[in-house]
Model the fold of this input.
Amino acid sequence: MADALLIFKPDAAYRLAVRAGMWSWLASERDWKVQSLAWFQPSVSLIESHYDFLQGRPFFPWLVDFMTALPLLVGRITAPADALKLMRFDLGETRIAQSRPGSLRERYGIFGGLNCLHLSDAPETGAAEVEKWSKVVQLDKIAVKLETESHHPDHTYRLRSLATQFAAGFHVELASQAIRELLAEESAIEGKEREALYRVILGALS
Done:
């Protein structure tokens, strides 16, 4: 059995219909087992280390902000190597425009690297990531109960359309305001947390 690190990124952790859809898939435990899940806000140093292979890329400062601005849902999954490969297939490719039709990222991802979940891509990677993260977050019990359904709306497809306009420089102010309104409808956070969610989502489009 292989270990894999699981992270609900902000675009899945706080968009409640998306979170429910992702959790419904994970909780099916078809050929895998969810061993732990907890809220945890990573430090800048942890994320810089986790994504060290991307350091120097133009989007790296945004990525660090994206992954540290808010608490995330972090967990550990155990699965045979072939089941982990199937999970990655179900999840879809990293970039939304390239995600396989019918995959979870094609269904719920907004744009570019706003791809909802991190899941270790191989047993070797999973072992290293779990070892690193287990030093700062408990990865041996489920401390959060998630729902598999939500009464909140899922605005993925409209958000994707608006994100495409924003990123291309068309109707930027109108698109930005509409994105904020839709994210507010999808989530249950307020105040500074909601503003942080706006910032990291819009930051991916700039």
Observations:
- The beta strands are 2-8, 33-40, 72-79, 117-119.
- The two ends are 41 Å apart (CA to CA).
- The longest strand covers residues 33-40.
